[in-house]
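This week, work through this protein record:
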Amino acid sequence: MDSQLKQGLEMTRRMLELVKSGAWEEVAVLGAERLQVLRQWGDTADADSIQQHVGVLQEIQALDKEIESLGRQGREEVADNLRQIHQGRKAGKAYRG
């Protein structure tokens, strides 16, 4: 496997671990780095190389989908928490008069 593609796969796996632990800032930084690595690989890969590594590319895509799904869930949880905080503040203000 080409070293850049292997590095991109490892970075994607690490991003998934970080998402699961809630380390969103680290995910963003690593995601930007990974994008550069995969673009560099894509810029130099020929059709034979792409065909040879289609399984790795599919694995990266599958991991990306999982990262995206967990990201949506995380956003929804944050939004719910913010709504609860807002409702609590409104109730507190109403109680205090």
